[in-house]
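Hi everyone,

Forwarding the result from last night's run.
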Amino acid sequence: MFKLCLALCVVATFATEAPVISLELDSSIRKLNTRSHYKAENKAKATGQGYTHECPANDAKASSRCKLPKASAYDHHDKLDGTDIKRTVMRVEMGPKGSKSTTCKSSEKDTCVCKDTESTRSHKCDKFIDFKSRGTYAVDYKLCDRSGNCAEDVVFAVILDDKIAPKFNFGKVSRKFTQECRKGSMTIPMPYVYDNVDTPAQIRSTLRINGNKSMKQYLRSYKVSTTYRYTINDFAGIFGKNSKVQGNTAVTTRVFTVKDTLRPLIAKPTLKNVECKKGKIYTVPTTTCSDKCDDTKSVKVDAIAATKVTTTEVTYNCKDRAGHSAYPVRTNVKIVDTTPPAIKVNMAYNTYKSSGTWDGQIFTHHGGSIHQGFAPNGKHRDQRPIFSCGDTCCATKSIVETHGWVKSCSDHTKAHWSEIKPGTYYHKFTCTDCNKLTTHGCRTVVNVDKHVPIITVLDGKDANVPARPTLQKINTVEATHDKNYVDGGATCSDMVDGVISQDVDISGDVVNMAKTGTYKITYKCCDVAGNCAKPAQRDVRVVDTTCPTCKLNTATPSHVIREASFAYKDSGATCTDSLDGSKKVVASGKKVDPELTGKYFITYSATDKAGNSNTKKASSKKCGNTLVRSVTVKDTLKPVIALHFAGKKIHESAAADKGVNNQRNPAQDKFMAQASSVNGWIIGAAASLVAGVALMAVGAKKTAVSVPV
């Protein structure tokens, strides 16, 4: 607060007729106090009139409150009023260094002379009192009448005092200032300051915190509170509340609290795709956990298996020393397979030899069909190239191996392999792993006709032919006069030219079917490329294995029964051979004896020039057409009994039966010339009875049995 001090001093002249100056003082005017350091008050005291008009400096109402007193004049002779009073305003004391400068200085006091405040002059004297600044002003009133008699000067003091301390303005900073824990330190915030008289820039130079112009606070503490004391003073000096110090002083405190309330932060890691590999354990990269209060630390997660294509979620977690947990960071680790499978193909095998005979073996290229042919061990042979697949991620058994013919190694359009068409072919091999990645290999296959054609001898079977393809055939044919030899021929085939049987060249012996022996026939064949097959040969053996055939002459049956004692004449047989013609017949067996009853066998045989007989072959095997006639001699005629007495036939039994061949019984003619009588027979009979002798007719026939030979 500022003071406006008004000291009223009346200076009287000894002239009785000097004018008089009177001032109207309001209630704010007081007696001078004892603050002798105010020069204006001292000057006022010297006049004997000690009055002070006190007013706060830089008060919005200071100019109205601290108006100069209204002065009036009186003279017993002249008619005077307040306008005749001359007022001089001068600053006799300024505030301390830094306060506003005065408007009127003592050296300028004459220029400050003005009329009464009610004067209509535009420049009023009270404008020279700077109510915004501290200071002491002395107002001197002078009055002289027209006769030159001057009234005693009236002087009073106007003191503008300042008893208001500066103010702090912390703005949005609360009384209990809280700062988040973090690394490093910070300068304690300083408040804004202002004063009713001095400018902020002037008083800020006096602002102190704990006695220092500035202070730093260490912020890396989990929880700490520090009280700071702020002080500031203005430059009121003797015009202040306590004139013994520099000026008015303001003091305040603020509590600054440092604490950790924030969670740590996990940096989201940038994870690359991981290549799959059998047996691989992948160590997931670490990331960082940062905290404003703590040191940055690394965060890791457990290792994962990278043995198959998959996506695995991993979670990073961390805590700071204050126990705050970071928000978990979840991310995916992708196990991928970008490595195609490896393929192994024996690329050295790049020439294909057309299927055909080659030293008795037949080969085929991998991907074609296995042709009929035999390796030395008797099994089919397939010249299959080495072809295998492998992969770093997938199991070998899960890899799909495929192959096929394509147009070229750069154009994988499907094509076809032709074993019979020479040219360049391309065989693509493909490995496809379990993740559908593929690798291709390509082999160039040159199909060149370098094999000889194949000759097949037709109708050539023999027990002596080995059980493998052969170029030699043996044919055995039966000799004959009735037929000509017709050769079965041979076929010739080539993988390129196809069937070229028309190009088979046949040479060798002319087979004579009527002449036994071995005849050789040779077959030759060459293809268009000039590859000639190894000559094939057929051995034609003309043999005579046909037995002569025999048949009985006439219609005589093969089984003959003859009556004993009758003569037998055999009709014989005729034998012929298909090659030799009529052959001599040989009859064998026991000769038929008609006087000897029994069974006789006559065998008829013939032998050709080759030694074949109708009874047996040259190999001693039965021919199967042996001709045998059986002759049975029987005695079927009855004997005849004749009785003779005295040299004369007296009786003869009947003999009218016929033999097996309808022969007449010749016994009936035996006793025809002899006489006979009944008496004689009776006598004979009687004699026989007496004598006890039975008379029988006894024939002269024998019995014989023959066995066929």
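Residues 342-448 form a domain with the Immunoglobulin-like fold (CATH 2.60.40).

Cheers,
N.
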